[in-house]
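Example record

One chain of 149 residues, shown exactly as stored in the release files.
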Amino acid sequence: MKPATIKTLKSAGGVIFRRTGTTVEIALIATKGKSAWTLPKGLIDPGELPDQTAIREIREETGLVGKIVGSLGEKSFWFYLKNENIRCKKSVSYFLVECIGGAIEEFGPEVDDARWVDINEALAKVAYRSDSELINKAKDMIEPHGNHS
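Predicted structure tokens for this chain:
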């Protein structure tokens, strides 16, 4: 058997949030037949910057329009495409994004569902540990901005 080909993929996405009274909510998307809740993200198009990709992918997957508040850093992971004998290293740049418009009911066809979730509940709902780490980092960045009450 020949060794696997190695492929590198670059994606971007983010934690998009809104404040409702004293509560902070973030948008999550469901994939894999609604069995996995995760953060919106997608591949960076040629000539696109990671922050542009994050805004585009969030819009495509959640129906929401946002503006970047700050960087949440990068996460990398490996996965394997058995049928093609390809090992992929995916690096994802994540951003904290404040919702400025759109409607979550207009989520895109590539996801099974999208909804607003209380940021603390989101920690228990997401399928991947890296998403929990990003949500905790987002909480730390959002809370110093106060509740404007």
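Notes: The chain has one domain: 5-145.
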